[in-house]
Amino acid sequence: MKHLTGLYGLPPESLVDLLDLAASYRAGLKHANPAFQPMLGNRRVALVFFENSTRTRFSFELAARHLGAGTLSFAAASSSVSKGETLSDTIRNLEAMQVDAFVLRHPSSGAAEFVASLTDRPVVNAGDGTHEHPTQALLDILTLREYFGRVAGLRVMILGDILHSRVARSNIFGLKALGAEIAVCGPSTLLPGGISELGIEVFTKLDEAIAWADAAIVLRLQLERATGGYIPSLQEYSASYGLTDEKLDRLRKHLPVLHPGPINREIEISNNVADRIQPPGYSSSMLLEQVTNGVAVRMAVLHRLLAD
Ligand code: NCD
To answer: What does pLDDT average to over the chain?
Structure first.
């Protein structure tokens, strides 16, 4: 593996290898002052973010530092991009400063593959448009694997704005490769045409999807990508597709609930579902567990791309 631009086409062995390595780092992160081998000492990782981010950016930064690498942060608004510099010139200039790897977030689908075609340094896609977000899916899959002890045979329902979601796409590719069953649920206007051809279940009624599922990944309504017209109103969306205690209790269904964040509280997920931490067997929010797993997954990815 030279770059990680997506989970599409990645062999199951590579996914399992990354998850196993991430799980070993996750065990280390349980300690208050985790110490890891600084195997990336003297390496420099450039965090090139053309879109806003809290979790992804911080966790890549922490992951690099845990392994001894230095990080350089780049935010488009405060860089020469605001003076009209192109993406390729930006990358070539960072390369000339001997940066060893690029972690890229960009609003255009395909941006990570474009950068990978320009440079021989490893490129990690931290989310490109509506295309892929491979490390988010890996951390979601690690969270499910730690909770259930397996991935194969699990029924995972992805709920909400599938049309604009790079997280949904990466999860579909990764989970399918590992033998999980997948369903998507949302209003038909937020489901991509031809989605059932991916060999997944499609629900437009949330009750049916809840009854089917072992776990739920709730997606943020991507208000910045959707220019309107997809849903009648936020209130109607939330009445039909918002995940609430009442809807779970009505079906007596207990699910671990994941969400990549940031969350729109009381729109796609209710406060009590987002905040409730329960032992297995009850509906429980996995949101903060996912965030910690994100650091472990990004350590595993940087380790494989830069140290091996
Ligand atoms: C996701 C993203 O940016 O793609 N969030 C994240 O990485 N934590 C999902 C989203 O923005 O809804």
So the answer is: 94
